[in-house]
């Protein structure tokens, strides 16, 4: 892993932010691409936010990219471009919580702070057969105390990385390789013969599904209307085609017309359905229905925190979009689509 071959705190920080919600094999190409584009904290701080989001596109949880960008600007502005070397200094930066602060402090600066990510939680709850719900704050405090007590003060970075990678490669969620594990002699869950019982978590709820209708709003020059999502929304800062959720009993084309009236103050005529795709997020699934549209009344007037642009299909590549919208863009290019609404 490339972030294991550097002592640059900036690059270690970037890797830990990426790994918060992403598997190692998924994160590695994004890490390479991101650090090629922004090799230093100064480069990241000076970049336009849209450029940062474009490099992050497809990795998900986009608030991580926005916060990383803001934190880099803080490091340059308030710390002279030097990443803070203490746990508290790191934790003061936007987007850095206890886990990331401990990881960067231990790996980059040799500070004895135990990390507590999903892999470490799984190892510790199995070794100590912790019966309490691992998502509860009290249980997390107990686990953090264990991680801090167990970390090697002489080599905290290596100790933390070893524990994380033990969880990722040996003490796996399903079919853990207990016979290959160096902690098996002291592991209470392995001794009892049911390691997969841990960590204890609440019962999963059914994953909801939403039908989403979006408008491919064309002007007479063949340009498309796109809008940027509010920073405080899911996928904040990314661009999208305007639209929203279908209400109960509402057809997607009716939802498309209603949403564009509510969001932008325009009345549109819809053409035949252009494309339908399914996409899964971490906590819900969607079916996206896209309709070519022509404005028949009104002028698009977005909310102040949702700026809009008219762009050509080729220019869509210059903007950062959610993955579902990107699939739609690829289909527009593949078909070399031109609307029939103005014929």
Automatic annotation (TrEMBL):
Keyword tags: 4Fe-4S, DNA damage, DNA repair, Glycosidase, Hydrolase, Iron, Iron-sulfur, Magnesium, Metal-binding
- Residues reported in the UniProt entry to bind 8-oxo-dGTP: 229, 240-243, 325
Q: Which GO BP terms apply?
A: base-excision repair; mismatch repair
This protein's cofactor list reads: Mg(2+); [4Fe-4S] cluster
* Domain (Nudix hydrolase): residue spans on this chain: 208-334
The record, for InterPro entries, names: A/G_AdeGlyc_MutY, DNA_glycosylase, Endonuclease3_FeS-loop_motif, Endouclease-III_FeS-bd_BS, HhH-GPD_domain, HhH_base_excis_C, HhH_motif, MIG/MutY
E.C. numbers:
3.2.2.31
Top-level taxon in the UniProt lineage: Bacteria
Q: SMART domains under this entry?
A: ENDO3c, FES
State where Mg(2+) binds: 243, 263
Instruction: Show the GO MF annotations.
Output: 4 iron, 4 sulfur cluster binding; 8-oxo-7,8-dihydroguanine DNA N-glycosylase activity; 8-oxo-7,8-dihydroguanosine triphosphate pyrophosphatase activity; adenine/guanine mispair binding; metal ion binding; oxidized purine DNA binding; purine-specific mismatch base pair DNA N-glycosylase activity
Cite the SUPFAM superfamilies for this sequence: DNA-glycosylase, Nudix
Annotated catalysed reactions? Hydrolyzes free adenine bases from 7,8-dihydro-8-oxoguanine:adenine mismatched double-stranded DNA, leaving an apurinic site
What does the protein in this record do? Adenine glycosylase active on G-A mispairs. MutY also corrects error-prone DNA synthesis past GO lesions which are due to the oxidatively damaged form of guanine: 7,8-dihydro-8-oxoguanine (8-oxo-dGTP).
Q: Which family is annotated? A: Belongs to the Nth/MutY family.
The record, for PANTHER family, names: ADENINE DNA GLYCOSYLASE
What this protein is called in its record is Adenine DNA glycosylase
- Species annotation: Longimonas halophila
Provide the gene name from the record: mutY
